[in-house]
């Protein structure tokens, strides 16, 4: 069964940290480019960070220097370490797996940054 399952969301104070994890199953994980997207209320879904199958990373300007994406091909997992969180980081975060025509999404995990 093809599945992406996110975990690690929650409520955190401004300046705090969270680590999101995405567990993949049913795919040849090492062949996929993996990404984290987010969608805030009333806004479009936006790309936060991407790590290609070769390990190259890229980030949205708004999270550069604060977020770090990593993958573990042996564990079929991709993580997003989020530091120095800001209220504007509040959103539902989605894991995405992309390979040729296969474009897979998780169900999302809520991240709320508030005091």
Beta-strand content estimate = over 45%
Percent range of helical residues:
under 10%
Cα-to-Cα separation, first versus last residue: 39 Å
Number of helices: 0
Mean pLDDT level: 97
Label the overall shape: globular
Structural class: mainly beta
Unreliable stretches, pLDDT < 50, 5 or more residues? none
**Using DSSP, what is the number of strands?**
11
Q: Main β-sheet, in a few words? A: 7 strands, mixed
Order of helices and strands: EEEEEEEEEEE
Radius of gyration over C-alpha positions, nearest whole angstrom:
13 Å
Described by its quaternary structure, the protein is single chain
Describe the structure in your own words.
- The chain is mostly beta strands.
- It contains no helices and eleven strands.
- β9 and β10 form a beta hairpin.
């Amino acid at each position: 069964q093809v599945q992406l399952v996110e975990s690690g969301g929650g409520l955190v104070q401004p300046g705090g940290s969270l680590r999101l994890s995405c567990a993949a199953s049913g795919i040849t994980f090492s062949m996929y480019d993996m990404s984290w997207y987010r969608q805030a209320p009333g806004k479009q879904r936006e790309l936060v960070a991407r790590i290609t199958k070769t390990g190259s990373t890229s980030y949205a300007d708004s999270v550069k220097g604060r977020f770090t994406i990593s993958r573990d091909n042996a564990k079929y997992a991709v993580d997003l370490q989020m530091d120095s969180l800001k209220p504007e980081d509040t959103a539902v975060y989605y894991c995405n797996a992309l390979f040729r025509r296969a474009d897979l999404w998780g169900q999302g995990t809520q991240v709320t940054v508030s005091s």
